[in-house]
Specification:
Length: 290
């Protein structure tokens, strides 16, 4: 119980610090505004596609999907994913190196808590900021969708937002891990940018090595989890390895384990836990006095 109270104290300390930071507030506001404008534009395309029964959009296969084409359409937006992935990774990348350069790391660590508590509380604070952006962006998008006459499922919408937050939490975790590797913010942010691009493209070489490795890439993980929200939606990867298709029609008999939603959940958990474990290991053994 004391450990949880300590983590909670650091968590709220970090949130208040970000709230007072003009840079963080401005970044969050601009990011939210741009994403909302972009998704509102996507809604116009979705509105045109309304009533579509059977077909394919990108690498999702849709069967009697009707108005719920909204979530696969949004999930396919590579530009939106790139922007939010960069935001989440850079936010995580400033966890340690940013606090060290700003001079706040010593202040936080001077609190009567151990390094593990400080680390966990700081990470939770940053994941919360990412979650707030996602909730606001997609909350406004859903409201606009209902306003223009679309009927996306609210239950699936909540599931979609949860998946998106978990997906971006993985990028935040990678950024946090990178923040413990170097002492200069510019170097860490450069590494974070390379990491984002590498992770977005990771599924290509993995799938070339073996289809069983496809769900180790963040992109296919996200797509598979989104498809799992509706039993009428599958990814092209799942159709290829669990069924067959002819033209726009397809059938899925039985998904192998490596293409299942369970495998995607396991991989997503690993993408969050492993980078954080590495970051925590390095932070507990780093010298914060320099």
């Amino acid at each position: 119980m004391r450990k949880l109270q300590a983590v909670n104290s650091v968590y709220w300390f970090e949130l208040r610090r970000h709230y007072r930071s003009r840079r963080t507030v401005a970044t969050v506001a601009i990011m939210t505004f741009l994403c909302v404008v972009y998704l509102f534009n996507i809604l116009r395309v979705t509105n045109i596609a309304r009533g579509r029964n059977v077909g394919t959009t990108g690498h999702f296969y849709l069967q009697s999907i009707n108005h719920d084409i909204l979530y696969p359409t949004v999930a396919l937006s590579s530009l939106l994913m790139l922007v939010l992935a960069c935001f989440a990774t850079f936010l995580g990348a400033g966890t340690i190196v940013g606090a060290r350069e700003d001079g706040t790391l010593r202040t936080v660590q001077s609190l009567p808590f151990d390094r593990r508590t400080v680390f966990i509380g700081s990470v939770f604070a940053r994941v919360t900021i990412v979650a707030v952006v996602v909730v606001v962006v997609f909350g406004l998008t859903l409201a606009q969708a209902y306003r223009i006459g679309l009927s996306p499922s609210l239950t699936r919408g909540i599931g979609f937002v949860s998946i998106f937050v978990a997906h971006l939490a993985g990028y935040t975790a990678v950024g946090v891990s990178l923040s413990t590797l170097r002492r200069r913010r510019s170097v860490v942010f450069g590494a974070a940018l390379v990491a984002v691009i590498g992770l977005l493209l990771a599924s290509i070489p993995l799938s070339m090595v073996s289809p069983r490795l496809t769900l180790l890439g963040p992109g296919p993980i996200f797509d598979t989890l989104v498809a799992g929200l509706d039993d009428r939606v599958y990814t092209a990867f799942q159709v290829e390895h669990g069924g067959e298709r002819t033209g726009l029609t397809f059938s899925v008999d039985e998904l192998p384990l490596f293409a299942s939603t369970s495998a995607a959940l396991l991989s997503q958990t690993a993408w969050i836990v492993l980078p954080l474990a590495i970051g925590l290991y390095r932070y507990e053994r780093s010298d914060i006095t320099n």
